[in-house]
Amino acid sequence: MRPSHLLLAVLVAAVWGVNFTVIEIGLGHFPPLLFSALRFLAAALPAVFLVGRPKVAWKWIVAVGLVLGVAKFGLVFVGMDAGMPAGLSSLVLQIQAVFTAVIAAAVLRERPSRVQALGMLVALAGIGVAAIDEGASGPLGAFLMVIGAAAAWGVSNVLTRKASPPDALNFMVWVSSVPVLPLLALSLLTEGPAEDLAALRALDWQGTGTILFVAWVSTVFGFGAWGRLLRRHPASTVAPFSLLVPVFGMSSAALFLGESVTPLRWCAAALLVGGVALTTLTPARRGRAREATAPARPELAGRPPARAEESVG
After folding, report:
1. pTM for the whole thing?
2. Phi, psi (degrees; rounded to nearest 5) at 137
3. Structural domain of residue 34, as residue ranges?
4. CA–CA distance, 313 with 310 (Å, rounded to integer)
5. Residue 128 within any structural domain of the chain
6. What letter would DSSP give residue 305?
7. CB neighbour list of residue 299: distance below 8 Å, 6 or more residues apart
């Protein structure tokens, strides 16, 4: 990987890590579901008019939009609003790699190797340590919401794998158009029109900045740059950089939000990042039945297999 691409990969990981701190700041300006809806609205418009028509079937765009946009990000924003720290959220969400591997084993018949299975156990141990730490110092319900968001992320990863979008940026922009109305409806039902209107009337430069950062910088730039790297380099070369996301997430939260990092949290980080590394960097084994029936595709010879968990952010 050339130095410019190396720096780009680190920059994307930094953007996705700092994004959690920006979300925390934005939650001081907006109710969580309204904030999530505005994020996707800004990511979709005007980009949908610039990226061209969708390159995959609408069923995949709608499915990923609902699972990733409504379920995953809805739970993340609500969980953080309920007291889940930004840095810990960036760390705990990485358990999505374990959910992805388990779901892929059930749906895609990608059997985990022994090293992957060990990685899952290590990552789950890290989640257990993080739960003990958060249970002693914060709301456990908010922690469980972020775990639920990671599970939804795992489902969306497998759906994305099935969709196999040829253009990551095009796919993400169109996916961003799906959650806007469902999230707005949920916000009106649960947060109330009065609270939503009050937040919009009080909109200032800082609130606007948080929307633009999570929409344009984290989503549009982040996924566009990540997709470019995956097109130019093997997935096994690009994927490890995603392990830097919680490093930047916890560091930025400590620096800008004053979040403390306890010894238990450091232990959880070491276990979770190490377990995710074992899970994501080791190829899964495909079932024998699938290998026997899969048609030969010589045009893919020599190309590293795409992994569902490579989309993060």
Report:
1. 0.84
2. -125, -10
3. 3-281
4. 10
5. yes
6. P
7. none
Burial 71-110 (b: 16+ CB within 10 A, else e): bbbbbbbbbbbbebbbbbbbbbbbbbbbbbbbbbbeebeb
Q: What is the Cα–Cα distance from 294 to 59, expressed in whole angstroms?
A: 24
Provide the 3-class DSSP secondary structure of residue 110: strand
pLDDT in tens, 139-186: 889 999 999 999 999 999 899 888 989 888 899 999 999 999 999 999
SS3 state at 286: strand
- Residue 161: CB atoms within 10 A of its CB come to 22
* 189 burial type by CB count under 10 A (0-12 exposed, 13-18 middle, 19+ buried): exposed
Instruction: Using the CB atoms, write b or e for 130-149: b if 16+ within 10 Å.
Output: bbebbeeeeeeebbebbbbb
Q: Which two tokens stand for residue 201?
A: 């009337």
SS3 for 14? Answer: helix
Distance CA(101)–CA(103), nearest Å, equals 6
The H or E element spanning position 218 is: none
Rounded to 5 degrees, what are φ and ψ at 19?
A: -55, -35
Q: How many CB atoms lie within 10 A of CB 225?
A: 18
Question: In whole angstroms, what is the distance from residue 117 CA to residue 276 CA?
Answer: 11
Q: How many domains does the chain have?
A: 1
DSSP class of residue 65? I
Rounded distance between C-alpha atoms, residue 41 and residue 183, angstroms = 10
Radius of gyration over alpha carbons of the chain, in Å? 19
Q: For residue 63, what are the CA distances in angstroms to 5, 97, 138, 177, 205?
A: 32, 19, 33, 12, 34
Say whether pLDDT at 309 is over 60. no
pLDDT confidence of residue 279 = 77
Task: Flag whether 190 is in a domain.
Answer: yes
Q: Does residue 307 belong to any structural domain of this protein?
A: no
- CA dist 34 and 1 (Å) reads 40
Tokens of 36: 């999530």
Indicate the residue type of 31. P
**Per the domain annotation, does 306 fall within a domain?**
no
